Amino acid sequence: MQGVLDHIVLNAEDVEALVRFYTEVVELAPERLDAFRQGQVPFPSVRLNAGTIIDLAPKAMWQGAELQDRGRPNLGHFCLTLDRADWEGLRARVAARRIPIEGPLPRWGARGNATSIYFHDPEGNEIEARYYEEETSPPTT
Questions:
Q1: Residue 2: per-residue pLDDT
Q2: pLDDT one-digit tens code per residue, 51-85
Q3: Rounded Cα gap, residues 18 and 46, in angstroms
Q4: C-alpha distances in angstroms, 52 versus 45, 49, 86, 119?
Q5: Helix (H, G, I), strand (E, B) or coil at 124
Q6: Which CATH number fits domain 1-74: 3.10.180.10, 3.40.50.300, 3.90.25.10, 3.30.420.10?
Q7: Three-state DSSP state, 66
Q8: Phi–psi pair at 69, nearest 5 degrees
Q9: Nearest-CA neighbor of 56 among 82, 80, 74?
Q10: What's the pTM value of the predicted model, to 2 decimals?
């Protein structure tokens, strides 16, 4: 089986802080932000690409008693793959805001060997950003 990532959900203590981070630092486009602010939808998102979004779930969505086992912590980390120029731009924006960066480090991923950095958003979610030197096909089994 092979699939494509549709979305991830980050449980947010402060949705507006995450919106600012993902739109200003990571430079992702907001989705449904005005509708969220007007109370028309329960959460906003940011768009990673045409087929993938990151949903930013406010505390009211994940703090209920029936959701306690599914609430925080969110996840180990998630990884964004960028071309090298975009990766370098992101690295510069993160550094300019004095956000601690681990790396660059050699890493292996879905397309083989890559160069990665790691940093955290305002709520402590770890983000790995990487680029591949060459576009390669995914490994086959």
A1: 64
A2: 899 989 898 887 764 544 544 455 667 888 999 99
A3: 10
A4: 10, 5, 18, 21
A5: coil
A6: 3.10.180.10
A7: helix
A8: -70, -20
A9: 74
A10: 0.75
- The string of pLDDT tens digits covering residues 80-105 is 899 999 999 999 999 999 999 999 99
Please compute Rg for the chain using Cα positions.
Answer: 16
The pLDDT tens digits for 106-133 are 988 878 899 999 999 998 888 989 999 8
Burial of 100 (0-12, 13-18, 19+ CB in 10 A): exposed
The residues, any chain, with a CB within 8 Å of residue 50's CB and separated by 6 or more, are: none
Amino acid identity at 14:
D
